[in-house]
Specification:
Number of strands: 37
Strand order of the largest sheet: 8-11-14-17-22-25-28-31-34-36-37
Strand content: 25-35%
Helix content: 10-25%
Structural class: alpha/beta
Radius of gyration: 27 Å
Largest sheet: 11 strands, mixed
Number of helices: 4
Oligomer: single chain
Distance between the termini: 95 Å
């Protein structure tokens, strides 16, 4: 593409001469025919040495010796630029004769069903949906338009996906929640008869599992992005535009407001609520309700500033313990001396 065409597509101002762009890359690895960007000041020094043919930068970082696209948000606009060059995965189109499609299922004529996919009774597959090989779509599932399901995903019965949902390989939706009742003779299974609902524009990472509800529904709100290896229990409700990073685990019946961010390996107990805009630091443990717009970290969680101060003290604790023991001995000796003097 011509750089001027890219500028026009992204509604950015081109500063410098036009040239042909064949791809995108980082500042350190870009070739003279590739477009790069600068968003993090940490990499500002690479602007002087990059071989990139052009860069997306803020107005204050524009170069005199290299074509630039001027942006108020270089990272966002570079992401949009990458979309112009990204090739969609998959080489199959249409409905394969090697796929199993139940006679009671409804598949839109524009959908793609790859070989060895399974579409169960009563399932509804919408326009332009793409289902890759090895995927299981159970009874009465609904998959709305432009959704992409990558290989080896499992959608158990009654799962509902909205528009433009992306499921990466190995995702499991609607498996039974972990529900058991204690009885004298052992554990009795509590049947999980609810469903899992994924709203529009949600993306779910590889090998993530989201359980069906015991009763009612488990629901993921519009625009939420979920990383790989995340586990959400039964009846969990996640608000709109949340971010759940890898290895987050949320126990049953917990609810998240809109715009919540959970960093990697955060664990959240069941039956609590995290308010809108909360941000929880990596490896934290949340065991109680959290008001809106709180930044918390630690196990158990505390205000992030307090956590940083406590973390700074932790390496000093052995020396502090040694000094405290010494002071206690000195204090005991002084008390004994004073007692002997009457």
């Amino acid at each position: 593409m011509l750089l001027s065409d890219i500028a026009r597509s992204l509604s950015l101002v081109l500063q410098g001469e036009d040239l042909e762009i064949t791809g995108v890359n980082t500042l350190s690895d870009a070739s003279p025919a590739e477009l790069s960007f600068l968003a993090n000041p940490k990499y500002a020094s690479q602007l002087a040495t990059t071989r990139a043919g052009a860069v997306i930068v803020s107005a204050g970082q524009a170069l005199d010796n290299k074509p630039c696209l001027i942006s108020a948000n270089p990272y966002l606009d570079f992401a949009r630029g990458v979309q112009l060059f990204a090739k969609p995965q998959g080489c199959f189109s249409g409905v394969s004769d090697l796929a199993f499609i139940h006679t009671d299922a409804r598949v839109d004529s524009t959908a793609t069903i790859a070989p060895f996919a399974f579409i169960g009774s009563g399932a509804v597959i919408g326009p332009r949906v793409r289902i890759f090989s090895g995927t299981y779509v159970g009874e009465d599932c609904v998959i709305d338009e432009d959704t992409v399901i990558y290989p080896n995903c499992s959608l158990m019965a009654g799962t509902v996906l909205g528009k433009r949902v992306i499921l990466h390989a190995g995702t499991v939706l609607g498996s039974d929640g972990f529900g058991f009742a204690q009885a004298a003779g052992g554990m009795t299974k509590f049947p999980q008869i609810g469903r899992t609902v994924i709203e529009d524009d949600v993306e779910i990472g590889a090998n993530t599992t989201i359980d069906r509800a015991a009763l009612g529904e488990t629901r993921i709100g519009q625009g939420t992005k979920i990383d790989n290896l995340v586990q959400l229990g039964h009846n969990v409700r996640v608000g709109k535009n949340c971010i759940l990073v890898a290895q987050v685990g949320i126990a049953g019946s917990t609810t998240l407001g809109d715009g919540v961010i959970l960093a990697g390996q955060v664990g959240v107990a069941g039956h609590i609520h995290l308010g809108d805009g909360c941000r929880i630091g990596a490896k934290s443990g949340v065991g109680q309700n959290v008001p809106p717009k709180q930044d918390l970290s630690g196990i158990p969680v505390m205000p992030h500033g307090s956590f940083l101060r406590a973390s700074a003290i932790m390496p000093k604790l052995p020396e502090m313990k040694r000094r405290l023991g010494k002071l206690e001995k000195e204090l005991a000796a002084l008390r004994e001396e004073l007692a002997n003097k009457g």
